[in-house]
């Protein structure tokens, strides 16, 4: 199958592209490189274009059988400060992509969604039946797009998989691709930046949560486990399966303190840090119930926290990562 990976020069998209290739699919990457890096798309055909550019998008879609959509803005804090940017890209431009798919006859669509659609969960671990009540504009834009997919499925026969990620982390074991954000807000690479002096200290937001050690608990999943789930979701649709919305997580919670302990173990160095106040809207714990993914896709996260941290550290030290930072 030929797949257009939209946003494939970004962190998760580049790993999904490699996962598709490992399974024998042909990959075309479509990315405007506003936050992605051409280096992460090395070895693939790369079309540089925006998802709002219907003409360029249409010519690309006519060549493919399915779409994986990763091209979204994804900073929660920024979405609060500049919601216009998020609704323009994640909703308006996203709908342009969706409409172009319908016009070009592309009927299989894998969507990079998020656990942010749930907001503050009514229970943990979080099942897919948890009410979708996002508490920030980023989560709202993802929910709007999920609703659009549901409507397009009913009206036009578009079959989709909405994959609700928890905390993606780690890097490809090769050390050739990994996490690159500007600015870097994710905990593990930010902790590494503090270790190597790229930032003076790491902010730890709150140590007074009702959790075992007082710090927030999250479900960290290796990016290659996520990539594998995307391929299996595509195969589910290819085999005639119905549209699905599923959580992608490990089902295990890890606290901020436990992450920092793991970073210190793999680097052999302390993480310079200071304690900051809680961030508004941060729930104490977000942990997936991934049983639906196991049932429908026969998928289960395989890579451990140690593998997440060690592969992320390998990427941080790699020549490929240093080249992209220049």
Q: What is the number of beta strands?
A: 14
End-to-end CA span: 36 Å
The proportion of residues forming helix, as a percent range, comes to 40-55%
Count of runs of 4 or more consecutive helical residues: 11
CATH homologous superfamily label of the largest domain: NAD(P)-binding Rossmann-like Domain
Query: H/E element string?
Result: EHEEHEHHEHEEHEEEHEEHEEHHH
Structural classification: alpha/beta
Inertia-based shape: globular
Largest sheet: 7 strands, parallel
Gross CATH architecture of the largest domain: 3-Layer(aba) Sandwich
Give the strand order of the largest sheet, numbering strands 1, 2, ... along the chain. 3-2-1-4-5-6-11
State which percent range the strand residues make up.
15-25%
Assign the CATH topology of the largest domain.
Rossmann fold
The number of domains is 2
Rg computed from alpha carbons, rounded to a whole number of angstroms: 19 Å
What is the name of the CATH class of the largest domain? Alpha Beta
Low-confidence stretches: none
Average of the residue pLDDT scores = 95
């Amino acid at each position: 199958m030929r797949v257009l990976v939209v946003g494939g020069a970004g962190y998760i998209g580049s790993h999904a592209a490699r996962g598709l290739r490992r399974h024998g699919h042909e990959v075309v990457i479509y990315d405007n490189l506003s936050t992605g890096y051409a280096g992460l798309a090395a070895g693939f055909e790369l079309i540089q274009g925006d998802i709002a550019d219907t003409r360029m998008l249409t010519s690309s879609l006519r060549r493919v059988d399915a779409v994986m959509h990763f091209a979204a803005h994804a900073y929660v804090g920024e979405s609060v400060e500049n919601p216009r940017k998020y609704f323009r890209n994640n909703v308006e431009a996203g709908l342009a992509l969706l409409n172009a798919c319908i016009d070009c006859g592309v009927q299989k669509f894998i969507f990079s969604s998020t656990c942010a659609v749930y907001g503050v969960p009514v229970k943990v671990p979080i099942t897919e039946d948890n009410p979708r009540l996002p508490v920030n504009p980023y989560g709202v834009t993802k929910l709007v797009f999920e609703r659009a997919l549901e409507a397009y499925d009913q009206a036009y026969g578009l079959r989709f998989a909405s994959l609700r990620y928890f905390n993606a982390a780690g890097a490809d074991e090769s050390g050739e691709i990994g996490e690159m954000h500007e600015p870097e807000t994710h905990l593990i690479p930010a902790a590494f930046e503090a270790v190597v002096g790229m930032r003076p200290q790491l902010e730890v937001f709150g140590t007074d949560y009702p959790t075992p050690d007082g710090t927030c608990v999250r479900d960290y999943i290796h990016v290659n486990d996520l990539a594998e789930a995307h391929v299996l979701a595509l195969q589910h649709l290819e085999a005639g399966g119905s549209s699905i919305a599923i959580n992608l997580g490990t089902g295990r919670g890890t606290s901020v303190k436990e992450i920092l302990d793991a970073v210190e173990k793999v680097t052999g160095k302390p993480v310079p840090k200071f304690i900051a106040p809680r961030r508004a809207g941060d729930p104490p714990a977000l942990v997936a119930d991934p049983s639906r993914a196991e049932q429908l896709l026969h998928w289960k996260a395989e890579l451990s926290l140690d593998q997440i941290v060690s592969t992320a550290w390998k990427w941080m030290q790699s020549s490929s990562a240093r080249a992209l930072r220049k």
